[in-house]
Design a protein that fits this description.
Blueprint (H helix, E strand, L loop, with lengths): L1 H12 L4 H4 L37 H9 L5 E8 L10 E6 L12 E4 L5 E7 L4 E6 L3 E3 L11 E2 L4 E8 L1 E8 L10 E8 L12 E6 L5 E7 L2 E7 L20 E2 L11 E3 L4 E2 L4 E2 L6 E8 L11 E8 L5 E8 L6 E7 L2 E11 L2 E5 L3 E5 L4 E7 L1 E2 L1 E10 L3 H4 L16 E7 L16 E4 L6 E7 L2 E9 L4 E7 L29 E2 L5 E3 L4 E11 L2 E8 L12 E7 L10 E4 L5 E7 L2 E9 L15 H14 L2 E4 L4 E8 L6
């Protein structure tokens, strides 16, 4: 066996045989400004839909779009380097967020940068877009406040994309006798960022390379962070049996370890982490096998496949993948090269438009033998839908001094609707959810929106207008009636609405959505109003005190009156210089508080306003600090100072 393996590796290293053994070039990770931007999504229903054309749009939808001309806009901006220098010749793309109740997909708009690093993305319909730029070996600089590169834009905005040189991990892979191993797959997985925030829930894979004839590998273009490196076993470049000479082995983690004992490597932008040498353990792996089942009433698409993914328990590090054609008679899968340990297995089916069906994840323990007989029963994923209405200001409000020149666009499609999973800390014996904890969409021009492909669980709805002149007046969830809210009056976005406007924002008494498997829930009602305020300022230390720990702080804005409406509780992280900004704030009187975040190291920290007890604690601390601000309609309040630690008044 060892002789055959060495022969296979040697043949793969020959130039004229390289193509069948490995791709022509290393996989490059695109540098995308919005890492959380949703992929085009499919409506999770077994009903048949009209066939899409080459762009993913149905003929009926295309005809409808032709009949309704819309004003097109553009996004301008620059791509710059770490020191602000322009980067020319970079391809920049604008990706539209999925909108409305439609599953139509519009291809992104593209533009190269000129000698000054400038770009112009034209022909954009009203909506919300993420902007991405690709340059080999570079990554988009992450937001220091959140650790993410996600920024949303609308036509008319100006974007600045900052690219920095990615980090590098390099070293050698040798066998137990110290001899170099050739054509060995080596992968790097990012487990958290440099501030300690955990990596994305759905993917940690960052890069892969194969060793050369010296056993040397080099993985470049990595986001700064903390990584684990492993060699052998499942490879992103494996395409079925025989894809690699080492596919059936258990992977070896750096330096010569299992996943549980792996050493971690810190990678910094533009720096090379050298000497990450792996001594291969050369251990035969186990196999996990099973089958997938589709609902009896659903006729499978003969071209569709089911993806079966194996991850190390309670992490997002991939340990294996298999693809099962739905047209196959037995729909069986097999995952090889599995080391002893705990794993989670996920199965989902979908095509070009995203997930459609998924099975409940399973926890599997591998202990000295193969695991067989697993069954995954696929079912449609859930979806929720609703309507967004924008209310224009009254004539009296428009006449206010601060509001005369501040008019909102009144375009519902320029708002981002987000569902965020409210998941408890993962139990050690239960697999975590595999779909993204976020689902985002922009409404269509009629205000309709749908968020698809939801696992069962509890979710929180968030609304983010990209127009800073708008604020969220109310959110009505199905099964609950907002208190003291009159019907919205007519507007450009709601021509049939009745008169009447609530004097203050109101949220539903119900704050969460409990989604059941496959549920198609409708009836969410969101109302926006003109006249929003903006508050910006800085956190400072009391005279003579040490500078505040900006990276660990959050600033909270909460109603000064004893109003428990969650829509009037805001929080934000700080810029490196201690500055902060709150946008889309309803006019009113507020308390302002800076305090240490209890979960500052989490990738997606839980907002303090998500439960009544946390809001009550915030209120007590804010009242003791006694820092207040009165925000008038349309006001832009700047240079506001918040002390940390607060001094009691």
């Amino acid at each position: 066996m060892k002789i055959l393996r060495v022969l296979f590796a040697t043949l793969c290293a020959l130039p004229f045989l390289l193509a069948p053994c490995a791709p022509a070039s290393r996989a490059q990770q695109p540098a995308v400004v919005s890492s959380d931007a949703p992929k085009p999504q499919a409506t999770p229903t077994p009903a048949m839909r009209p066939a899409p054309d080459a762009t993913g749009e149905t003929r009926a939808a295309a005809e409808s779009r032709k009949k309704t001309p819309v004003a097109l806009g553009s996004i301008t901006g620059r791509v710059v380097g770490e020191s602000g220098e322009p980067i020319a010749g970079v391809s920049v793309n604008a990706f539209p967020y999925a909108s409305g109740g439609s599953s139509n997909f519009r291809p992104p708009r593209s533009s190269p940068t000129d000698d000054e690093g400038s770009f112009l993305l034209e022909g954009l319909e009203p909506g919300v877009y993420s902007v991405g730029a690709n340059l080999a070996g570079y990554v988009v600089e992450a937001d220091p406040q959140t650790g993410r590169a996600g920024v949303a834009y609308r036509p008319g905005d100006t974007a600045t994309v900052r690219l920095v040189k990615g980090g590098v991990v390099t070293g050698t892979v040798t066998d137990p006798q110290g001899e170099p191993l050739v054509a060995m797959s080596v992968r790097a997985h990012r487990v958290r960022d440099l501030d300690g925030r955990n990596a994305s829930t759905t993917s940690s894979f960052a890069g892969e390379d194969k060793t050369d004839d010296r056993g040397v590998y080099r993985i470049y273009g990595l986001q700064p962070g903390v990584y684990v490196v492993l060699a052998g076993g499942f490879s992103q470049w494996s395409f079925g049996p025989g894809g690699s000479a080492y596919d059936t082995d258990s992977p070896t983690f750096y330096p010569s370890a299992t996943r549980d004992t792996a050493a971690e490597i810190t990678v910094r932008a533009g720096q090379e982490a050298a000497g990450v040498d792996v001594r291969y353990r050369d251990e035969q792996g186990r196999r996990i096998t099973g089958r997938v089942e589709m609902p009896v009433a659903v006729a499978p698409d003969p071209t569709a496949t089911v993806g079966v993914t194996l991850t190390y328990a309670s992490t997002n590090i991939n340990a294996g993948s298999s693809y099962v054609p739905l047209s196959a008679d037995n729909r069986s899968f097999s995952l090889g090269g599995v080391a002893d340990g705990e794993y989670d297995i996920y199965a989902s089916a979908g095509g070009r438009e995203g997930f459609t069906f998924a099975a409940a994840p399973q926890r599997v323990s591998v202990r000295g033998a193969d695991v067989t007989g697993l069954v995954f029963k696929l079912a449609p994923l859930a979806a929720v839908s609703g309507t967004l209405v924008i209310e224009p200001s009254s004539e009296a409000d428009r006449a206010r001094e601060g509001c005369k020149d501040r008019r909102a666009s009144l375009l519902p499609q320029e708002t981002l609707i987000t569902l965020r999973a409210d998941r408890p800390a993962a139990a050690t014996n239960q697999p975590a959810g595999r779909t993204s904890p976020f689902r985002e969409a922009a409404p269509d021009d009629a205000g309709a929106f749908t968020l698809r492909n939801l696992e069962a669980g509890r979710y929180r709805l968030a609304v983010r207008p990209l127009d800073e002149n708008l604020f969220v007046r109310s959110v009505g969830l199905p099964g609950a009636t907002p208190p003291n809210v009159a019907a919205p009056r007519a507007s450009a976005a709601s021509p049939g609405a009745r008169a009447g406007v609530a004097p203050t924002p109101n949220s539903s008494a119900r704050e969460t959505l409990d989604i059941k498997p496959g549920q198609q829930l409708s009836g969410i009602n969101v109302r926006l109003s003109e006249g929003a305020s903006v508050l910006s300022g800085r956190v400072v230390a009391p005279e003579g005190a040490a500078p505040p720990p900006f990276a660990q702080l959050r600033v909270h804005l909460l109603p000064a009156e004893r109003d428990d409406d969650a829509l009037r509780f805001f929080e934000t992280t700080l810029a490196p210089d201690g500055s902060f900004t709150f946008k889309n704030v309803p006019p009113g009187r507020y308390n302002v508080l800076a305090r240490v975040a209890p979960d500052a190291n989490e990738a997606t920290p839980r907002p303090a306003s998500w439960d009544a007890d946390s809001r009550a604690k915030l209120r007590r601390e804010a009242e003791a600090a006694a820092t207040t601000v009165e925000l008038q309609p349309c006001q832009r309040a700047a240079d506001f100072t918040v002390r940390f630690p607060p001094t009691a008044k």
